Amino acid sequence: MISRYSLPEMADLWSDDARYATWSKVELLATQAQAMLGRVPEPALADIQQARVPSVARVAEHERQRDHEILAFLAAFCENIPADSARWVHLGMTSYDLVDTALGATLARACDVLLEAVVRLRGVLVDQALAHWETVCIGRTHGMHAEPTTLGHKLAGFAFATDRSVRRLRAARSEVAVGTISGSVGTYALIDPFVEEHVCAELGLGVEPAPSQVVARDRHAQLLHALATLGACVEQLATEVRLLSRSEVREVEERRTAGYQGSSAMPHKRNPTASERLVGLARLLRGYAGTTLENVALWHERDLSHSSVERVVLPDAMIVAHYQTSRAADLVAGLEVFPDRMRAMVEGNGGVFYSSAVLADLLAGGIERERAYRSVQAAANGAASGDGDFATLLRAEGIDVAPLRPERFLVHHDVILKRLENLRDLAH
């Protein structure tokens, strides 16, 4: 992923240096297990444990000769090991015993980094929802004014969606945090299963139960679909901010620096560019998810069609998801809110949103539904056309109403508040 959409704590996990460091660790742990079984001499183990992680440049130099990255890595890894000891490196293993076990370890670490960002986003959303629980605004359905709600209620919905993403990611982490060191077709023909148990235990990984040389790729598909769903949830949040930021609405605004410039041609513009960026990144995550489904069906025990795909989509998807989530938390934490503008929006439509409450009162008073609906609708249409305020027009229809206040619609708001407070307490 390009540096513009990368944060170092995630991007560094996917560097070539980090990959070769993890490969080196797998090889060292496997050799250690072989020594514990008495299959590698202790002096050789001591020599191998002194090996250095090979440089990216050195591996690339060997790969130009061999056209095989794993063999190039092993050649570079063994360069400073005495030849009599180097022969014990990679004993009984095949390439993807190394690659997939190291990948499982990297994915586990990457999931942990991402989860920290998602948990932060959840916490920021909960805090802002509680802070704006009483900030009344107009709710909209189909993009049209509906009934009053509060900004806190809106943000609570996003908080619970993020909480579901936390749980999906934790489940996906457990599925991708696996390894296999089982030989050429996964039968352990030339390697004792103890080696796999030892290496995976030391790396904090589970074991692929029926290996075919590689870890099953449906695991990665599950993870990237969790990322795509997380991205869609962030996209929904960002879309709401964009809609509420429009010039004719302006109920919220992204926080701006003193030197902010929104347009090269129009100095007055205050564009919701951070939100728009989050929406765009969600599209990438959906694309990556579909690609991992293509990797599930390999030929027989394995082929190599998945490899080139994974080199791109796995690091890119994790980096993008982490960047998007982190920036979403920044957006929410710094969101500028205009309660007076929200209240004006509630009060500035002639009171027509009270129509459902008036209709309910008429029905409760025994008025026939069609008659009640048409009378209320006529008054609402008149108010929307500027013929007068809703209450006055209702009286013209022979309907006397009690004072109309937005709080009429929030009488059971404490039910949702308690759920939100429970989420806050669980998160802490």
Automatic annotation (TrEMBL):
One of its GO terms (molecular function) is (S)-2-(5-amino-1-(5-phospho-D-ribosyl)imidazole-4-carboxamido) succinate lyase (fumarate-forming) activity. Keywords: Lyase, Purine biosynthesis. CDD domains: Adenylsuccinate_lyase_1. It catalyses: N(6)-(1,2-dicarboxyethyl)-AMP = fumarate + AMP; (2S)-2-[5-amino-1-(5-phospho-beta-D-ribosyl)imidazole-4-carboxamido]succinate = 5-amino-1-(5-phospho-beta-D-ribosyl)imidazole-4-carboxamide + fumarate. Residues 350-421 form the Adenylosuccinate lyase C-terminal domain. Its EC number is 4.3.2.2. PROSITE patterns: FUMARATE_LYASES. The keyword Ribonucleoprotein does not apply. GO terms for biological process: 'de novo' AMP biosynthetic process; 'de novo' IMP biosynthetic process. GO terms for cellular component: cytosol. It is an enzyme of class 4 (lyase). Belongs to the lyase 1 family. Adenylosuccinate lyase subfamily. PANTHER family: ADENYLOSUCCINATE LYASE (PTHR43172). This is Adenylosuccinate lyase. It comes from Salinispora tropica (strain ATCC BAA-916 / DSM 44818 / JCM 13857 / NBRC 105044 / CNB-440).
